[in-house]
Amino acid sequence: MDRPSTQTWLDNYVAAWLSYDKDDIRGLFAEDIAYRYHPYDDPIVGRDAVIASWLGEFDSDEASTRDAPGTYSARYAPVAVDDDIVVATGTSSYRDRPDGPIVRTYHNCFVMRFDSEGRCREFTEYYLEQPVQGS
User: Is 129 exposed, middle or buried (0-12, 13-18, 19+ CB in 10 A)?
Assistant: First the structure.
């Protein structure tokens, strides 16, 4: 991986999260992906399991909840690229409704490993919620 291809992957990751399109999600990950929403989780293993998790169809506590359209935005960028290993950081913001104010912002760090075709085969997310100003 290099920085431009990593940025493209990250932009596609955000686009897939916004679309919840199975093919968009499938294109990001290797067949044998090991995906962790938190560093302490057992990984979700396999592309189909990750797709099901993203779509809220995975019968597990590690499943994602599907965000309502227009309530989520994010921007991530690589901070370290070393052959097949990438570290990226960024922020994600959430609204309760599409036209509402931002109610939560998270600072994210992704640690990833890619296969030779630019698909992610290991993904671990770390994140912290930004405190509300004035609290």
Answer: exposed
